[in-house]
Structures are given as structure tokens and as C-alpha cells.
Design a protein that fits this description.
The structure holds two protein chains of two kinds. Chain A is mainly α. In chain A, about 65% of the residues lie in helices and about 0% in strands. By secondary structure, chain B is of the alpha/beta class. In chain B, a hairpin with a 2-residue loop joins strand 4 and strand 5. The complex binds adenosine-5'-triphosphate and magnesium ion (MG).
Amino acid sequence: MTGTQTIAKPPAPTGGRPGLGGRIPLARLRDLALVPAILLLVVVGAIIDPVFLSSANITNVLQQQTELALLVLAEAIILIAGKFDLSLESTIGLAPALALALVIPAASNGLGTELPAGLAIPICLLVGVAIGAFNGLLILRFKLSAFIVTLGMLIVLRGLQIGITGGQNLFDIPPSVLYLGNAVWFGVPASIWISGTLFVVGIAALGFFRHGRAVYAIGGNTDAARAAGIRTDRVVWIILMVGGLLAALAGLLMTGRLGSVAAAQGDGMIFTVFAAAVIGGISLDGGKGTLFGALCGVIVLGLINNILTLAGVSAQWIQAIYGAIILIALILARLTSGKAQD
Amino acid sequence: MTGQTQTAGTVAGAVAPAAEARDISKRYGATVALHSAGITIAPGETHALVGRNGAGKSTLVSILTGLQRPDSGQVRFDGTPAPALADRDAWRQRVACVYQKSTIIPTLTVAENLFLNRQAGRGLIDWRGLRRRAADLLEGYAVAVDPAAPAGSLTVEQRQLVEIARALSFGATFIILDEPTAQLDAAAIERLFGRMRELQAAGVTFLFISHHLQEVYEVCQTVTVLRDARHILTQPVDTLSREALVAAMTGDAGETLAGIDRPAVPESAPVVLDVAGLGLAGFYQDIDLRVRAGELVGLIGSGSSGKVALAETIAGLRRADTGTVSLAGNTPKPGSVPAALAAGLGYLPQDRHREGLVPLLSVAENATLPITDRLGPAGIIAPTRQRAVAQRMIEAYDIKTDGPHQPVNGLSGGNAQKVVLARALANDPKALVMVSPTAGVDVRSKDSLLRAVAEAAAQGTGVLIVSDELDDLRSCDRVLVMFHGRVVREVSRGWADAELVTAVEGVEQP
Ligand SMILES: Nc1ncnc2c1ncn2[C@@H]1O[C@H](COP(=O)(O)OP(=O)(O)OP(=O)(O)O)[C@@H](O)[C@H]1O
Ligand SMILES: [Mg+2]
């Protein structure tokens, strides 16, 4: 019977008496679902190698995840609004690469313009915003599918980076660009402060401000959001630009941490970004999930990666095992949430 | 047009109309949804807008609320031109609306839906306070739901009440209600009308759309009729008889709906739907009911009677705690829709917005979904056969559409509904369960729909109609009344309206 699929389950009976707070809403519980998983991973890590719990290792794990965390923050907000951005993984490379190419001499694979080095960071961030704005133009004005637009942009932007740099890695990095990825503030790397702060800002904005809640409304039902007076196109556009900005910032951190911009910087990251978001409870349908959940997703993946390294899994195998574990985590997240992740 | 017709702008000298649309035209591709139509709504009145399915009512609403730009024509509020389309806030200050299509966001909580985009000003949202305000608001409509529950967990009726409560809570002085009563039971409709009268006394103006003409007479002072995208008349309600109103809507002399005469079903006819000792905690208990082949059985009850839950259990959408459901002698696996359908059940769900149709597929594809195997050999769908079948359905059910190729998301609410019904009847089910089959369907189409159902019964289908519309139940051989989860009464054909209504209200002791 083909008619079957179109009949959805009726809503479950809701509890009799309306309560005002007191009990924790189910959604809130799902938010915390990954906390036990994180604790479990910490215990496993500690058993495998005592080094795991050393503050140097923990700092290291966190710092390595900061760039991913920023991309996940961007992607989570975009997904909640019911859109997609695959091009983030190219923005993280192109934005710093273009900014550097404009400031470094042609001898170091620059474009020869040799703008003042102080402009590198503003240009980098601006490039991120511009990419987001251009995605928004194609998606909102020309009504193209976000998926296909940003997939195209992923390829175009990567190609641009290779074209601009001649496929070379950029090494001659001005100190101002290196700073954020290397600085240590109050004993903790600046990149951790930055990512942490931005997550807190994001959680507050999406949880406690009207304009942030509009993102959920748009992802849940765009027509209804529009009817409620939300300027849906404008909000989505802003979100896409913020996404590009965060990706460019992540690019800066990565450049500083690694001391160079590789031609393939960010290449292949988008799978991990989506995995972290989905494991963290963000729905690809839009309208569901929280940034706190997404952050937990990032931490879970970071811990798994670290544990695999400490456990001495050979470098040749680590990618396959990491990918497999992500798939298992997705299955577990599906089972514990009881909802299809379509 | 008659002498009493007030065309736009003729209320000279008097106060400016609360809302006015003049010479509005709107096309969707080849479809003309409005052809230089207009409406003038005087301040403080409750103005009815009626017309057949696809007449253009909802299109006019979307223009009056600034969701769509008319191809030509203007909208004014209190005599001043309407704000720019992009300025949603300005529109919202002038007009609040319950749209025909649900604007509830299922992933957000009830409280947040009620205060969507006005959870707070520029500052932090006080969630606790928001839930408290939501609870207060819901209390006024006797909606017993937790404000912290996700809106997706509400029933169709509860969602509709949330929409109504939201629209009425803005403090807007002009409120549009597009078929607010289509999914409500009598008690909820009365509460709505009570609230509307209070607000009207406080100076609020309403535009009210409904296919239940008695409601127009009950709460409205003026009525505007649209037909085929055109304005037909605007007249005080008390100068217009029901017959004249139906005639204006349909363009010919109206006839009121009567029960369709059908031969009695012989005792020997096999039982196609047998429900024995069914119970589901919180919804209904000890339900026994039997429908024979060829029989039309009605099931009526208020929103809290459990009748919809019972229908959903029969269809496999819910699983009963006790008892069994048998279809044509088989007992399909409880709680499984595919099993119920395979056993020969046809089911028309209550929530057509969510469950009815595949929005981007054409009318033909949607209507023939369950019978694709009959449209050609070896699973091949012959397009000409499909079109022909769909064309027959379009005629039989009076579906107003560009043709079988039109995507169903371009249909008006009532016409989409007819496609769902056509589909439920398409594969000659042994037993057919329908929930509010004529909700949102215009007076004349109701007739053709109910005839189609009676026709199916004559072919040997046993039909259970779950509805609170007395008109839906007139051709039934017998009608069961549910009250607080039990069948309290059974009446056979020829029942008096009053008898049924009092039983539904639970006034009479069984
Ligand atoms: N988005 C759309 N795309 C194409 N056609 C449309 C669209 N919306 C409405 N129409 C067409 O415009 C006409 C008027 O539709 P409208 O929804 O205004 O009818 P209605 O009077 O509200 O009917 P109902 O009583 O069934 O709700 C219909 O013929 C419909 O098919
Ligand atoms: Mg309509």
C-alpha cells in the first residue's frame, strides 16, 4: 500500500495537568544526553593512558578542536534555520589564504599587492562575510537549493585558493596573523577562550533572545515565521554571513596554530562538522537542537580522536577507525533520541 | 448586483472602514484567484466572507494580511494605505489572523508559539514568565495543555485553539479568522463565539470565514460573497435568506442538504469492521461496534469524547490497551497502519495538513497513489490512464483545479481535502473510516462528497463516519454517540437533531 507512508503518527497524549516549570522538559534532557558519554570517554581515556588527564593533554585536545568548534557553531546555527552550508570547509582555507596573499610579497607566493600586514585579519574576516553574503544571494534571491549552491561554492572556493596561491602552501605569515592561534591568555590558549566565548554568546542568543528564537521559528516553519512578522530572508542572510565570518575566524586560528596556510586547509572537514552537529542533536530538517548539544558533539569527537591517538592506533588506520566510530555514534544518537535523522 | 450592495468606498461620510480592499486581482500562473474583487469592512462589525472552495477567500486573506502582493488593487486600513509588504511589524499592528493553513511550529513549545516573535523586547526572554502568560491565555479557551510541551504533540483541535488564542491576544483591532471552526467541536466553537462577542463589544472588527452558514447567521452582521474570483455581493446578514446566500455562492438556486435515501442493509450482510471491548486509557473504554458491508454508521461526540482516538486506533495509528479490531474477518496487527490497510481499510485522517498529501506531486499522482498497480502492467504507470482516472475523480468530487497536472500545494484548502477523500475511496476498501470528511468543504461540494460515500456503501463498503457535523450523518443507517470515552447512545435513521445534540452534550442520561 503506497498510501501508508503519508499517514503520520498522531501526537502522543500530553500529560494531564499543565505544569509551570518544575519538571525538566524532555528537550532539555536530550540536550544533556551527551554529558554521560563525555564522562565515559574521560574515564576510558584515563584508563588507557594516565597522560590523558594531564592538563597539557586536555588543553591540547581542546585547542585542536577550536577550529572545528567554530565551524560546528556556524553550521549548527545554519542547520537550525533549516539551511545548509557546505562551503564552510573551503572558507576556512580561502579566507586566510586570500588575506595573506594580499599582504605578503610575490616571492612568498603572494599576489604582489603587499598591502599593510595589519589589514590581513580584517580582510580575512571580510572575505568570510562576503562568501556568506554571496551564498545568501544565490539561495534567497535566486531561490536555489542551499545544498547545491554551497556544494558548488565549496568547489569554487577551493579552486580559487589554489589559483591564487598557485597551489602552494603559504609560510611567510605576519606575526599579527599568527597571534590568535598561538597566544596564551591566563594560562589557556587564546583560541579556547575565543571559541568558548563565542559558544556562550551563541547559546545565549539562540536561547534567550527574540531574534535568536527567530532562527528556530524559521527552521520549524518558514511560512509561519513570516506570518508572525519575522523577516525570514534577512535573518537567514545574516546567519549565512555570520557562518562565513566564523569560518574565516576558524581559518585564522588554524593558520596561527599550524604556522602556515596549506592549499588543502580545511579539506574534508565538513563531514566531521556535520557529524558533530548531528551527534549533538541538531536536526538536518531544521528547527531542532541546541548549540550546547552541538558543543558536546565537538567534545565527544575530540576525545575519541585523542583516545585513538593515545591508544597507539597506527596512523594508517586512524582515519578509518575514526570514521567508523562517528557512524556508530550517529547510530547511538539515533537510538537514544528515538527520532529519525533525515 | 443588488441595490443593497455596498461597493468599496460608498460608506461616504461615515467613519473610514476598518479594512478595505479595492479592485484586487491576483493570478497564480494560469489560475485567476481574484478578479478585481474587493471588500469593505466597517469598524466594529463581524463581517463574513463566504464562497465555494477555490473562490478566492484565502487569497484575499493573504493580501489583507500582507503575505502576498496583489497583481493590482489596493488595501487600506482605517482609511490609510497599507504599509509596505516588507514591513511585517506594521502589518501585524493592523491585522491579526488565524490562517487556514496551520502556522504552528511543531518543534517549538506551545508557550513560544503563542508568543512567537514577541517573546521579549530587546532584552532577555523570561521563559518562566512566558510559560505563565501562556497558561493564563490557554485557560481562557479551556485548552488543557502544558505550555512547555512541544506544539507538535497537540491534537489538531488543540493546535487550532492555540492559533485562535494567539490571534486574539495581540490586541489588534482587526482580526481575520479563516475557517477557524472547521476542526472544532460544538463546545469549542461556542467558547470562540463568546470571546468574539466580548471583543466585538470592546470595538474589535472581525472578518470571519466559514463553510458553516449557520455560523454566519449566528455571529456576523454583514456578509460578502465571492464566486469564481469575483465579488458577488455584500449585504447585511439579516436581509439575506439562507437560500439566497447559497444561490449567491453557487450561482444557481440552492437546495438544502437532505439525507440520501438508501435501502436498508440486510441482517445477513457480512460484518466488515468489528470492534470488540476496545479500551485505551485516557481516551475511551469498552467500545463495541460493528459495521456491516454496505452500512453507513455515524460516530458523533465532542472533542473530549475520544472518537478521533478510536478512529485512529482502528486505522492502526494508536494501539489499544484492551480489545480487538477485526477487518473483514481478519485481525490485523494492532498499532500497524500497513497491516490495517492491507486488511482492507480505507482511512481519511483528521490532520490533512500534515498527513494527507504529497505537496509537490500533481493532483493526479496524489489521487491515484494507492491504486498505481491498476494503472498499467508490471508496476508501470500509464500516464494517460492515470490522467483519465484523475479526471473522473475531479469531476465526481467537484475538485476545482487547473487539471490533473496541477501540484496539490496550489489547491485551495477545501479542494485539497477533496483529493484526500478521493484517494481514500480510490481502492474500493472493504471498510472505510473517515474523520470529519467534510471539514472545510463548501455546501455544494459536501453534497457531492457525501453522495460519493453513499455510492461506495452501495458497492458494499462498510463506512464509519466520525464527525460532529449533523449534515455528514444524515444518510447514516445509525449513529452512535460517544461521551467521555463511552458509546452512550445509538439512534437509527430519522433521528431528530435535538435528540442527537443533547446526547452529545451529555445532558440526557443514557
Ligand atoms: N500557491 C498557489 N499556487 C497556485 N494556485 C493557487 C495557489 N493558492 C491558491 N491558488 C488557486 O487560487 C484559487 C483560490 O484559492 P483560495 O485558497 O483563495 O480559495 P478559498 O476560497 O480559500 O477556498 P477554500 O474554501 O477551499 O479554502 C484556487 O483555484 C487555487 O487553486
Ligand atoms: Mg481557503
